[in-house]
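re: ur question from yesterday

yeah so i grabbed the chain u mentioned. its 70 aa long if i counted rite. heres the sequnce exactly as i have it in my notes:
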Amino acid sequence: MMTYLVKLIPEADGSFSVLVPGLPGCVSQGATRDEALENIGEAISLYLDVVKEIANEGGAETARVEVTLA
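ran it thru and got these structure tokens back, copy pasting raw so excuse formatting
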């Protein structure tokens, strides 16, 4: 299980837009805060499925890199 920071943006109509700063282009929305969070969870899962699919194309070698942030 992974945890992602998301940004909830209240809209004028009372709904919420939500984006994931760490996953460019991964956005969703919902009529309520809870719905927006549920929807972004699904969007993150689908986003990562596509990233995994792209990473496995073409027989390119993959590796893991550990990064320490200051």
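noticed a couple things. The CA atoms of residues 18 and 65 lie 28 Å apart. also The two ends are 24 Å apart (CA to CA).
anyway ttyl
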